[in-house]
Design goal:
With 231 residues, the protein is an alpha/beta fold. It has helices spanning 2-27, 31-38, 60-68, 78-81, 93-96, 98-107, 128-133, 142-156, 191-194, 208-213, and strands at 49-51, 121-123, 160-161, 164-165, 169-172, 198-201, 221-223. The strands form two sheets. Strands 1-2-5-6-7 form a five-stranded parallel beta sheet. It has a two-stranded antiparallel ribbon with strand order 3-4. A hairpin with a 2-residue loop joins strand 3 (160-161) and strand 4. The longest helix is centred in the first third of the chain and has 26 residues, at 2-27. It is globular and about 45 Å long. The termini are far apart. Residues 45-177 form the Exostosin GT47 domain. InterPro entries: Exostosin, Exostosin_GT47.
Length: 231
């Protein structure tokens, strides 16, 4: 019995020393790291998303062009642009604003992380549909804009080298998939850079042969609802 009591006491003391050591190590860590470690697994999102901090030429500049120009039925206030469909518009806000709405919602999402190394998936914000329609509001061709986007993504982080992502990437399209392999809207024609990206779009081309012809036979696309509700 005495031997067992000595063993039990030794175990308690050893455990106490280990705990004291862990407490000392923990207290030496930066405050932000201690707070991060203090979170229980249940409070951490099951999925973390990193957003590339792209220059405004790929996002807000295109949005302002869409708001301020009259070509292609795009004369509208920002409120009108990001809310509902209006009959008579050549390009309805409920479709094309998916790029803008998704980006804005994600910026305030609980799944967002500012640390790319912790992200499960990386998001490339680019208002591709607006770029195709806002021809009088940008100083470069759509093809040049695409080239500059890939160059930026390639040089910013080491996860997208020459169009071959080492980690999952996704983008959002404001128009149905098939519109983005046309001459005036050629994003998906660039198979080298887009084949391995997951796209979210209002619609997916159902014609299997047409998808194969466009080089997207096995490429992934997620169909999004055109009406987004508040989180």
């Amino acid at each position: 019995k005495q031997l067992q009591a000595d063993i039990d006491e030794s175990t308690v003391l050893t455990g106490t020393k280990h705990q004291q050591h862990r407490d000392a190590v923990e207290s030496s860590k930066p405050e932000t790291q201690r707070l991060e470690n203090a979170k229980s697994p249940a409070t951490r999102p099951s999925l973390l998303v990193y957003i590339y901090d792209v220059p405004s030429m790929f996002t807000t500049d295109l949005l302002h062009c869409a708001i301020n120009n009259t070509d292609n039925g795009y004369q509208r206030t920002e409120d009108r642009f990001t809310s509902t469909t209006h009959s008579g518009d050549d390009v309805t806000s409920v479709v094309t604003s998916l790029e803008v709405l998704f980006h804005r919602r994600l910026l305030s999402s609980k799944y967002l992380t500012s640390d790319a190394t912790k992200a499960d998936v990386l998001f490339i914000p680019f208002y591709a549909s607006l770029a195709c329609n806002c021809r009088s509001g940008i100083n470069v061709t759509v093809a040049d804009l695409h080239s500059q986007l890939w160059q930026f993504v390639d040089q910013t982080l080491p996860y997208f080298r020459n169009g071959k992502p080492s980690r999952p990437h996704f983008m959002v399209l404001g128009k149905p998939e098939r519109y983005h392999w046309t001459k005036i809207c050629p994003l998906l024609r660039d198979k080298e850079h887009t084949s391995n990206i997951i796209f979210i779009s209002p619609d997916r081309e159902n014609n299997v042969e047409l998808r194969k012809y466009a080089g997207r036979g096995t490429s992934q696309i997620i169909v999004a609802l055109t009406q987004l509700t508040s989180p």
